[in-house]
Amino acid sequence: METEEAFYSEEYAMNKPNRGVAIIINNVSFHPSTQMGERTGSDKDHKALKQRFKELEFDVREFKNLKRDDMESLMKKVAGESHDNNDCFMCAMLSHGEEGTIYGFDGPIEIQRLIEPFKGHNCRSLAGKPKIFFIQACRGSKLDAGVEQQDSKGSRESETIEYKVQRIPTEADFLIAYSVVPGYFSWRNSANGSWFVQAISEVFRKYGQKLDLMTLMTRVNKLVAYNFESNASKEYMTNKKQIPCITSMLTKDVYFRSKN
C-alpha cells in the first residue's frame, strides 16, 4: 500500500532503478489470406519510436511481423516478469486495424486481449504504476473532411476532493493513445511514416523530459490535427484530416525526467 506522502503526491513516483520495459511491435507484412497490404513507412515509425523511448531511458525490445498468438504470448510473458525495479511500462503497436482489433501477421486480435495481462492480479508488480500503450492502426474506414475553425471562449471550474483508499481499481493507471478516433482511417506516409508517430517523435524529442504525459499527448493531438492533411491520388481521399484519441485512466501526472 502507498505511503501517505506518496498517496497525496500529484505525480507518479519515478525513483526506481530502471525506467522500465518498452515493447515495439511493428507488423509490416501480412499473410495473403488477410488481404492486408504491406505497411510501407512503418519501419520509419519503428526507428523513431525506438529512438524516443531510449532517450526516455526505457529498455526497448523490438518485434516484427508477429502472429496474433505470438503477440498475446509476448504480452503475457512481459506482464509475468518482475517490474518491481521499474517505474512504468510502455508499449507501441504498429499494424493494420479495425475498431477494437489490431492485426497480427495472420489476422486480427482484440486489443483488450493484449492489454489484459497487465491488469490487476495479472501483473502485481506494475500495480499503481503507469502502463502506457500507443496504437498506430486504423479503427475503421471513415475519412475526416475537417471543418472550418471558429474562435471560441470558455471557462473551466475545478474541485479537489481528497480521500484515502485501501485498494486501486483494476483498470487504473493506464493510458491508451490511439492514432485516430473510433471508426476512422489512420493515415500513414510511405516515406515518412504515420502522422501519429511523426507527431509523437517530434513532441517527445522536444519536450519528453520536460512536460507531463497528458500535456505531451495534447500537443501530439494538435500537431496531427493542424499540421497534416492528406494529398492522395484518389480525389475522395484528398484533403482529409485526422485526430488521435487518448483514453486515460491515469490517476497522477507522468513525468519522464532524466535519472542521471
Automatic annotation (TrEMBL):
It comes from the Eukaryota. The keyword Hydrolase applies. SMART domains: CASc. One of its GO terms (molecular function) is cysteine-type endopeptidase activity. GO terms for cellular component: cytoplasm. Residues 18-142 form the Caspase family p20 domain. Keywords: Apoptosis, Hydrolase, Protease, Thiol protease, Zymogen. Belongs to the peptidase C14A family. This is Caspase-3. It comes from Lottia gigantea.
